[in-house]
Design brief:
By secondary structure, this protein is an alpha/beta fold. Helices cover 51% and strands 12% of the residues. The protein contains 16 helices and eight strands. It has helices spanning 11-22, 34-43, 65-69, 84-91, 116-123, 138-141, 156-166, 179-201, 206-227, 231-234, 237-248, 253-262, 267-274, 279-293, 299-309, 314-322; strands at residues 3-7, 26-30, 60-62, 74-77, 100-103, 128-133, 147-152, 171-176. It has an eight-stranded mixed β-sheet with strand order 3-2-1-4-5-6-7-8, with helices on both faces. α2 (34-43) links the parallel β2 and β3.
Length: 335
């Protein structure tokens, strides 16, 4: 049994705390709001995010950050990507040397273009930052539906340790050394999912979505290789696996926001209606900046940015993608 603290009581943090408690670990769930912590303690249910899912009595719920961080084997950082740096900064005074911190958010910091694990290590130099990612909607994990993810860590020993912490009969975990690839796949698939949702909102069909998924992963791989990630990672769980589920699922907040924009709503209106953090909106600008920095062509992500921030209509963006210059599908395939 390990002592584990989950920092962030949103849907994903709550779902992971249920998983970890059911795995037999001593589990603490931290919320940044005492009112929310009190409600979770009283009702044992996250009614707004995971209705009908009961939190095991074994999960200790607190809003006291020092208490949540004290004497833990593993800390799971489950706040939205835009709050990772500020939360890590608050955590730093209470983190012991060598503390294992597992990031489970998906994003890239717009101002620095840093991945979230790099950001955690910058704010908490004492920490060992790792990542857990993959096609894993909280709504399904919290209900014990079979799910598969990948853990990325600097050493194989650490990856195997975390694999044992998270793995269960309903949550299968693979391991990888490619932290960069895992994080890029997790962040940029949200941007492609915005495009897929927009296509749905416009009334386009399965052909369109398949094209966006296929060409979207091509863009992500292209950037990943330029940045030093392994191409194999993007054809795995945190790449094509997460991209498929995020583009297609009714649980996907990014797809839902895109759908609303395809129906004519503004980005701000769509985000307000979704009532959850739409990570793809924050990763879109960072993805485009990375494309320019590494001189990589990413036409879908470029058009998503134009729809989000420059007033281009979704229909015009799709038309431009369809009418781009003729291309070879894969330069690696010889005649």
């Amino acid at each position: 049994m390990a002592k584990v603290s989950v920092i962030g009581a949103g849907s994903w943090g709550t779902a992971l705390s249920i998983l970890l408690c059911n795995n037999g670990h001593d589990t603490v769930l931290w919320s940044h709001r005492e009112a929310q912590a009190e409600e979770l303690r009283r009702t044992r249910e996250h009614a707004s995010k995971l209705p009908g899912v009961k939190l095991p009595e074994g999960i200790q719920i607190t809003s006291d950050l020092p208490e949540a961080l004290q004497n833990k084997d593993v800390i799971v950082l489950a706040v939205p990507s835009v709050a990772v740096r500020s939360t890590a900064r608050k955590m730093e005074p209470y983190i012991r040397y060598g503390q294992v911190i597992v990031n489970v958010a998906k994003g890239i910091e717009e101002s620095t273009l840093m991945t979230l694990t790099d950001m955690i290590e910058e704010e908490i130099p004492n920490a060992q930052a790792c990542v857990l990612s993959g096609p894993s909607h909280a709504e399904e994990v919290s209900r014990g539906l079979p799910t598969t993810c990948v853990v990325g860590a600097r050493t194989k020993e650490m990856a195997e340790y975390l694999q044992n912490i998270f793995m269960s009969s309903v949550f299968r975990v693979y391991i990888s050394s490619d932290i960069l690839g895992i994080e890029l796949g997790g962040a940029l698939k949200n941007v492609i999912a915005l495009a897929a949702g927009t296509a749905d909102g416009l009334g386009y069909g399965d052909n369109t979505k398949a094209a966006l998924i296929t060409r979207g992963i091509t863009e992500i791989v292209r950037l990943g290789i330029a940045m030093g990630a392994k191409p194999e990672t993007f054809y795995g769980l945190s790449g094509i696996g997460d991209l498929i589920v995020t583009c297609a699922s009714v649980h996907s907040r990014n797809r839902r926001a895109g759908y609303l924009m395809g129906q004519g709503k503004t980005m701000e209106e769509a985000m307000e209606e979704v009532h959850m953090v739409v990570e793809g909106v924050y990763s879109a600008k960072a993805g485009l900046q990375l494309a320019r920095k590494y001189q990589v062509e990413m036409p879908i992500i470029e058009r998503v940015n134009q729809v989000l921030f420059e007033g281009k209509t979704a229909a015009d963006a799709v038309k431009e993608l369809m009418l781009r210059d003729k291309k070879i599908e894969s330069w690696e395939v010889e005649w």
